[in-house]
Amino acid sequence: MGIVYKGEDPVIHRAVAIKTLAPQYQGPEHHELQERFKHEAQAAGRLNHPNIINVYEYGEDAGTAYLATEFVDGKTLSEIEDTDQVFSPREVAEIVLNVLNALAYAHQNGVVHRDIKPSNIMLSSSGEVKIADFGIARIESSELTQMGTVMGTPGYMSPEQLLGEQVDQRSDLFSTGVLLYELLIRKPAFRGTNIASTAFQVVHTELQPISEIDPNISDVIDSVISKALAKKPDDRYADAQAFAADLSACLPALSSTASAQSKLVSNDATVIQTPPSHLVSPEKSPETPASPPQSNQRKSSKGIWLGLIAIAAIGGGGFWGKKMLDSGEPKPVRQQVTSPTVKPQTQDLASAAETVDAQTEQPGDTIQDCPYCPQLIVVPSGSFLKGSPDSELGRLSNEGPQHQVDINYQFAVSKFEISKLEYSIFVSDSNYQSNGCWVYDGEWIERPDHGWQKPGFEQDDTHPATCISWDDAKAYINWLTQKTGHDYRLLSAAEWEFLARTGSDNPSCTVANLADQTAAQAYPGWTVHSCTDGFVNTAPTSAFQANELGIYGLSGNVFEWVEDCWNQTYQGAPTDGSAWSDGDCRQRVLKGGSWFSQPNFVRYAFRNHLNSNTRASTLGFRIARTL
């Protein structure tokens, strides 16, 4: 989200790097990003250390904010990792020792970086290690960072940072441990298939010792990495100095030559002893942008713009927003958490930015409030006929009278049913307990030893969480709301039916996992659909095509709990899209059918009802978020 230019201070003829926000992020609607940009100057500007890129000046010129920093002739570690260059184990340790040296200084000065990763560590042509990008750093007594905004890159964030808890210097030490591990094995330490699975690995997975991956690397490093990567902050090094002391003690045992294993991993790459300048010199300047934007061509009051030459365009640098367009590319994320030190009525920068986001979210936009949060999609307002007409084949009396519902608001809904992985993160973090589930084995039997982890058939983490009661779903929602500070909820029955009917015909095996010919082979005698979807029980939440709104699996797979209390008919039902809060609230409504459902029970008008504490291997849920 930024552009970096190489420039020269015309007074003292010193090369500088000038960082600006890209033009599309200059408007008032990106006020918080601009404040983050200024925040980087405040964080790094108070630090003066040989292993930290120095900030010389922050200013604004013709409406464009800029940051003038030390110019480093070199490459980031991530850029070097993308080449065939290989560091020896000893060189890796020496690089990380420089990082720890800089972090010790920053921590002593009240700054926690919060985004240590290869792309934020530069290696100069002379071999100097430099930490860059303090855009999301936490500064003691900083109002901006007390607003509860937690940002970072999931694969390098500490467990407490991912879970929205308070972070201190030990979070940086965890990230540095991840960096050390990655540089030694030349692969990311935590490699999930998506953001949620990566976050789950960080919080729960213990990494294989380095010496087991590469026996040529001394096992003395294993205990150091294990302590740095402890899941609980209290089990880690207390400070960077202690980490550095133990790592320094490993140096004599670490080879100064890359091992055969490392060479194999990197396709017989050249080993770097002392990095020569040609290996880390900057790449040629791109053709565009050849100069700063036209509006910035004139010299500012201090002449900082004079003689600028574009050297690189960068995307990220910590200036990440919560709202993401569904481009198919990996998306940075931001998590909002509630800080007890902030008065609710305070109109600060973070809350102002939230207001702007709410105003600018458009139908089709994708939102993900934290790395382990479900992906949401913004859906439009609209009107529809709820229920079924008297003439509909298979109609039940509780589906009428048919009536118009007007939903005059936008909201966001999870693109997929809540997955087993997403639910497991909640259970692990909250220690939530649930026992017993109705499972099908030729007949329905309640088994106390079954549940969401053991529903009576094989599942993987991509399948929907099942054996979920309405009470369980509400517990998940309350947890997610507390973690993010956003208003999560179940859909109302009206919202669910509106989403299902919008742009979709009645469900078939092309869009839903239903009781089909595959199930008939496993369970002879079932009444099934004439089509074949390939699944006997649950399927991955993304296995079937989305509807025109971009929502997957509204019908089939698992019944979805909604907020409404049960009523025998629609007489007196709300007409504004809200949930029906009157009636028998011990019984809650389910919509959409499941892998077990015969044709009549997956019609959009069909609604089931069960006690709110009922768990069965056909029951799951999806969530909504108020905008």
UniProtKB/TrEMBL annotation:
Domain Protein kinase: 1-254
Keywords from the named record: ATP-binding, Kinase, Nucleotide-binding, Serine/threonine-protein kinase, Transferase
UniProt biased composition (Basic and acidic residues): 323-332
Gene3D superfamilies for this protein: paralog of FGE (formylglycine-generating enzyme), Phosphorylase Kinase, domain 1, Transferase(Phosphotransferase) domain 1
Keyword ATP-binding listed: yes
Polar residues bias: start-end ranges: 335-344
GO molecular function per UniProt: ATP binding; formylglycine-generating oxidase activity; protein serine/threonine kinase activity
Classification via Pfam families: FGE-sulfatase, Pkinase
EC number(s) per entry: 2.7.11.1
Region (Disordered): 274-299, 323-344
InterPro entries (UniProt xref): CTDL_fold, Kinase-like_dom_sf, Prot_kinase_dom, Ser/Thr_kinase_AS, Sulfatase_Mod_Factor_Kinase, SUMF_dom, SUMF_sf
Protein name: non-specific serine/threonine protein kinase
Taxonomic lineage: Bacteria, Pseudomonadati, Pseudomonadota, Gammaproteobacteria, Alteromonadales
